[in-house]
Amino acid sequence: MRTQACVQGRFLGGRPPYGYRLVDAGPHPLEAHARWGRRLRQLEPNPVTGPWVRWIFQQRAVGRSIAGIARELNDRGVVCPSGADSRRNRHRSGRAWRTPTVAGILENPRYTGRQVWNRTGTTQSLGAARRAGGTGRRTNAGEWAVSDAPAHAALVDEATFRSVRGIRAARRSQDGGTRRYRLAGLVVCGACDRRFDSHWAHNCPGYRCRHGRTSARAEAPGLKSVYVREEHLLDGLRSRLPEVSGAEEDVVNYLRANGLVIVYLGPDWILEQLQPEPAPTAPPLSGTQLSLPGC
Q1: Could you say which of 38, 183, 224, 225 would form a disulfide bridge with 33 (CB–CB 3.0 to 4.6 Å)?
Q2: Is the pLDDT assigned to residue 130 strictly greater than 90?
């Protein structure tokens, strides 16, 4: 499969990336498979969603934030990737754009016309991975198999793609070290229901909510930013979870294993069970419901 992707640029299955659709690419090159009626498929720009991918890269290339891009896509009513192809994304809500969705598009080299294989992998069986609700672990870029030559029409040129990845590159802290946030993703605002952002202040890890100032959703008006230090939350967790003994990592692992989140409102907070999003019931939006970006 690595050879087929790198040398032949062959599409090896899976969901097509947002902005593309699958089209017929002729009979299978192996005679036996061709006799069975198997045919090759390749990616082709989708006339409805493809222009939005170009728009996302153009906006990011001029320095616009990922959250700002996601927010405008939602404001314009642009269908998100899982909503545009709900049949292949039944495990996703299909409701709205999220910042990780936009970031994933900006990091995908397939938009340069190159075929890519092994962006995700798994150490368990395929059935076990599906039952777990995911497709496996994200592999490092060095493990990807990228085609030597373009395999399909590009939605962005490689120079723009490289410049956008440069914007995405993580910056080191001033002391040259890395910062760790144990409770990342586990603190939810009791006022606006958003997850707190990880925030480093006074040489300590903490979390803050600015109620939508950097979110894909509209900003919640009339609310002041909230900040809480990580050590204060960990101290409170130890007292509220006496059944969990051990290091701080044991407390954090207990929250993740049991699907618990900290709902924080001012100095008060509670633990709540994280509720999964319901499956989508509405049909996917058609292309006539979108307005193309003016660019």
Answers
A1: 38
A2: no
Sequence-distant contacts of 196-200: CB under 8 A, at least 24 apart: 196/226, 196/228, 196/264, 199/227, 200/173
Alpha-helical runs (H) found in the chain: 2-6, 31-35, 50-61, 66-76, 81-84, 99-106, 126-131, 158-168, 230-240, 248-257
Contact 201, 227 (CB under 8 A): yes
Q: Each residue of 237-276: pLDDT tens digit? A: 888 888 876 677 888 888 888 888 899 987 888 888 865 4
Residue with tokens 């890519």: 116
Hey, what domains does the chain have and what are their CATH numbers? 2-169 (3.90.1750.20), 187-273 (no CATH)
Rounded CA-CA distance 50/19 in Å is: 4
What is the average pLDDT across 63-78? 88
**What's the pTM?**
0.55
Report helix angle 99-106 to 158-168, nearest 10: 130
